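Give me structure tokens for this 472-residue protein.
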Amino acid sequence: MSKLYIGLKPSDLAPQNCLFIEDEKCFNAKTPEDFAVKLRLFLDDIKHFKFLNHIELCPTPDLNAEEKERIKKYQEVAMRVRQEMWMALGNPHDSLLGLENFFGNLDFILKYPEVQHLQIEKPFHAVVVASGPSLDQELELLRKVQSKILILCVDASFKSLLDADICPHIVTAVERDDYSVAFFKNLPSNLATLFVAQPTIPKKIFDLYSGPIATVRKLSGPFLWLPMPSPQFWSGSSSAHLCYRLACYLGAQSVALIGQDLAYHPDTFQSHSKISDYPDWNKPVSSEDRQAKDQAFWTEGNTRERVLTMPYWDLFAHEYSMMVQETKVGTFNTSTLGRKIDGIPYKPFKSWMSDLPKTKKVAAHFPTENPDRVQNQQLTKAKIQDAICHLTQLKEKLQTKHADINGLYKNLLLIPHFLELAFEIVIRDYARTENLCFNAPHDQILEHRSNFLRSVEQSTTRVLDVLKSALI
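Here you go.
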């Protein structure tokens, strides 16, 4: 039987100063993907961030060949999860941008309905339309069957669908920078499609959109700060993941992924379908250039022996696998030119449609305003004032010349508004600091933590500025 050691690599003797978890007790995983879910949940705990760079799976010497091979796969999973966690933590600049956008969009959050206010008459089946190269092959059939299924699309594929006379029920956006702004320019007026966005996107996108709007919360950062109860869920790293989460949350009996290639076109190596706003995306590129510039690598395809993917798409694929395992919703990938995704079988879109039971036209009910708007405004204003008070006190403590570094460092995590607001901005620095301190000499630990506290002071000042602007 193996043990999962997170910490020092153990010697022949009992490991010292290591956290270890017996496989059969806490990580009783039947498959490597199940192990990935359990390990990620473990590492999601802030107390365990210090182990991100210190993961070691150590088999006992009496394992047979089959068990050793199993442990090898689990070791690969552990390294992959570690890389995904670091990628998911993002960076302070991106998190600060998200926070500034969040409070810049506070009026939209309070005005528009949230996901719990949306209703779809059941039963229904859904498709998630991404913008991979396979999308171009499915537009004609999608247009013919659009009334029979709930269509959720990413921002990048929205105009392509409208140009093909397809009116999706929902379009999503999650990017914090101006990357997605082009997708919402020059759209038709009086759109019927509901725009569902994480309110960390640029405010200008909300301003541009003429149709109905709703917001959705992530299980992280400033979303945890809002004083009003609302569903929060892990929605992965892309707008396509958000589409999938919404389809499952709204009660879809099954979901088909369209254009979710997560791979370059196997013949032209273009990255996307025809996207009018970014024409370079569908231009041919050599596989050598992709491998040299994008760190691309080969993986098994849905209908091709192999296709070329890249690290971010690999992360997206693993996130899909985890979501499907969690939601238990029947999910199929119809992307003919794409890669295989663990846990999501390939099925041609036409076959998926043929296998659906006969259902009536999809009926969606989307309110135009949040019914609790006035009450939510009052709660939020009081919460902002309270946060300003707490963070001002925190800033004063951080500026104390003779502050107890260790004491402050430990108490930071007990301050609610640090966790709810500054948390997302400094979280990567925190994880980095904890990993640097792991088994470091005492004087180096003090230096690392002192540097971290200075970073927190700077972040707290920025957060205070954002809060004061929101209060005005």
